[in-house]
Amino acid sequence: MEAKRAKRSTGKRAKGWPRDITVGRTTVTVYRRTNGDGVGYRVADYSTGTRRFLSYADEGTALDEAKRIA
After folding, report:
1. What does the angle CA 58 – CA 69 – CA 38 come to, to the nearest 5 degrees?
2. Of 37, 46, 52, 59, which sits with the fewest C-beta atoms within 10 Å of its C-beta?
3. Residue 37: predicted pLDDT
4. Closest Cα to residue 43, out of 12, 27, 34, 35?
5. Residue 13 has what DSSP assignment?
6. pLDDT of residue 20
7. What is the pLDDT of residues 8-62, one digit of tens each?
């Protein structure tokens, strides 16, 4: 008798996410996350030397902040 294999969950990813915003040689990554209220956006900020996530409710605001940081 063969043992059944558990299927691996690949998860659902939205197309086009995460997004990388590049200005010159600097790249800032913007992640899209679902939460209880809907969708949120997180910008990875390494400008202080350590990673900080800045959270935004609006996609446009998150992308603008990523461009400013880059």
Report:
1. 20
2. 37
3. 84
4. 27
5. -
6. 96
7. 656 666 688 999 999 999 999 999 999 888 999 999 999 999 999 999 999 999 9
Cβ count within 10 A of residue 42: 17
Bigger pLDDT: 1 or 16?
16
pTM of the full structure: 0.75
Q: How far is CA 27 from CA 9, 23, 35, 38, 45, in A?
A: 30, 7, 25, 27, 10
In the chain, DSSP finds a helix count (H) and a strand count (E) of: 1, 4
Parallel, antiparallel, or unpaired for β 38-45 and 52-56? Answer: antiparallel
Of 10, 11, 28, the C-alpha closest to 19 is 28
Count other C-beta atoms under 10 Å from residue 21's C-beta. 19
Q: Is 59 helix (H, G, I), strand (E, B) or coil?
A: helix
CB 54 within 8 A of CB 42: yes
